[in-house]
Write a structure and sequence with these properties.
Blueprint (H helix, E strand, L loop, with lengths): L13 E3 L4 E3 L10 E3 L2 E11 L9 E6 L8 E4 L4 E7 L8 E3 L23 E6 L5 E6 L4 H6 L4 E6 L8 E10 L14 H4 L8 E4 L7 E3 L4 E8 L6 E5 L5 E5 L2 E6 L5 E4 L4 E7 L7 E6 L7 E8 L30 E9 L5 E4 L2 E4 L15 E3 L16 E3 L4 E8 L5 E5 L4 E6 L2 E2 L5 E2 L1 E4 L4 E7 L4 E7 L2 H5 L3 E6 L1
Parallel strand pairs: 4-7, 6-11, 12-15, 14-22, 23-28, 27-36
Antiparallel strand pairs: 1-2, 3-4, 4-5, 7-9, 8-10, 10-11, 12-13, 15-20, 16-19, 16-21, 17-18, 17-20, 21-22, 23-26, 24-25, 28-34, 29-33, 29-35, 30-31, 30-32, 30-34, 35-36
């Protein structure tokens, strides 16, 4: 199947004499909307896309620069960038550069860090990416609908030295709820869904299309960047006949390791970089299965091997370690310790009254958008996308090490995203987390307790919220302040 070149991320070609190793092919041309490698113009505007397959009708979507996903933004670690965002929608918007450690004024939260971008207006985001890795960008205004209609794109910050791979690929995964006629199903913010698992769709796309197969050559080594841009769908990906090795999570390098049970667990907004040694037989196909939801497994795509002879007969003998990013290491011995408890939702035994979570029996009725808050953190709810005057739940002294204990008292999964920082995940239910895993979006299972640490070195008011967008909009959001 023809591959969209915009989403083939590759690095400078280097042919290693003797070994015959091709380090990632030449970079594709910069997108038309990029003025220079450090200056992008990105327009949020309506467009049409064929999401569900060549035989299905086109869908009216909202896009960045007319494509789903939006323009691939490629930046260089440690080099300043300037991104001009134009709003051609009929409603206000912003852009949040998810996972990037940047100045607070550039974080894209309306009211809290910037005025919203009104229709017909623009806003310039300027920052210097400290970390290399896989990130993405999306709105933070009416984010449930805007993201659900397609506003999302990948952002890749290149390492200074490329990894030894034959190809560097991006799989930008998104979940859509489509009607039989191909339109996006209406009624965003269903109150029952808001109190449960959120708006899970009926169509999953890979780089903006339903994928039947992705082409590979036997013997090649591939770096695969996985991005879950879904509103609510959690994914657990199995690569039939293959053993992916995780080398980075949420843009931050980790100790290379095979995932537990061979499944890559990818909550909304999470990213995982894996290395795949393609050792399948020429001409054969191997399924990639998402089986997170019981009884609802489906085939995301297939790894389709070309008939050509193998590129090499044995896996490449090269390091899988990525260079570490300049993250400050928290001092656990002197760290300040705080707790955040996630509450609410259907079957929680809690209910909302006057914006405060109170004990009750079973939480009844439909709660969420238009019906009050359905969720809370430490007993308090903040609904919507962010606004001026949001009081912080916690305040940290700048430069201090902090340990956060996230306690999920609900019956539902929550990918908790902390803006402006990365968190070193220490333990889950008291059991140490191996492989030095840093994340900006921590997936917390029902009734689970997660400990994570960071250095509060980035001043400002920062959102912490669930990235199941219905949950955020219905109260599972707070502000953490670094003074």
């Amino acid at each position: 199947m023809k591959r969209e070149p915009q989403y083939l991320v590759a690095r400078r070609g280097v042919l290693q004499a003797g070994a015959g190793l091709l380090f990632a092919a030449a970079l594709p041309p910069l997108p038309a909307w990029s003025v220079s490698p450090d200056h992008y113009r990105i327009a949020a505007a309506p467009a049409r896309a064929r999401l569900a397959g060549p035989d299905r009708p086109e869908t009216d979507v909202w896009t960045y620069n007319g494509t789903v996903p939006g323009t691939l933004v490629r930046l260089r670690q440690g080099e300043p960038t300037r991104l001009l965002v134009e709003n051609r929608l009929d409603q206000e918007t912003t852009v949040h550069w998810h996972g990037i450690r940047l100045p607070n004024a550039m974080d894209g939260v309306p009211g809290l860090t910037q005025p919203p971008i009104r229709p017909g207006e623009s806003f310039v985001y300027e920052f210097t990416p400290q970390d290399a890795g896989t990130f993405w960008y999306h709105p933070h205004a009416n984010s449930l609908e805007q993201l659900g209609r397609g506003l999302a794109g990948a952002l890749i910050v290149e390492e200074r030295e490329p990894m030894a791979v034959d190809r560097d690929l991006l799989w930008f995964l998104a979940d859509w709820r489509l009607t039989e006629e191909g339109g996006i199903a209406p009624r965003f913010g269903n109150r029952m869904e808001a109190a449960m698992s959120g708006r899970v769709g009926n169509t999953v796309t890979l780089n903006g299309r339903a994928s039947e197969a992705e082409s590979f050559r036997t013997g090649e080594r591939v770096r695969l960047r996985l991005v879950n841009a879904s509103l609510a769908r959690i994914m657990a990906l199995r690569f039939e006949g293959h053993s992916p090795v995780t080398v980075a999570i949420d843009g931050q390098p980790c100790d290379p390791h095979e995932p537990a049970g061979g499944r890559l667990l990818l909550g909304p907004a999470m990213r995982i970089d894996v290395v795949l040694d393609m050792q399948g037989e020429p001409g054969k196909r191997y399924a990639v299965i998402d089986d997170f939801y019981d009884g609802l497994a489906y085939r995301l795509t297939e790894l389709a091997y070309e008939e050509r002879p193998p590129l090499r007969t044995h896996p490449l003998d090269a390091s899988l370690d990525l260079p570490r990013n300049p993250l400050p290491e928290p001092d656990l011995a002197t760290a300040d310790r705080h707790g955040l408890t996630l509450q609410g939702g259907m079957m929680s035994g809690m209910m909302m009254r006057g914006g405060v979570m109170q004990g009750a029996g079973m939480m009844h009725g439909m709660m969420g958008m238009g019906g009050g808050a359905a969720w809370a953190i430490n007993g308090m709810s903040m609904t919507g996308d962010g606004h001026a005057g949001m009081e912080p739940a916690l305040t940290f002294q700048r430069g201090r090490s902090v340990v956060l204990k996230l306690r999920n008292e609900t019956a539902w999964w929550h990918p908790m995203h902390f803006h402006g920082h990365s968190l070193r995940v220490l333990s889950r239910n008291g059991k140490p987390v191996p492989h030095r895993q840093w994340q900006d979006t921590v997936l917390v299972a029902p009734k689970e307790v997660v400990e994570a640490a960071f250095v509060a070195d980035n001043p400002g008011d920062w959102m912490l919220h669930c990235h199941v967008m219905d949950h955020q909009m219905a109260g599972l959001m707070t502000v953490l302040r670094v003074d």
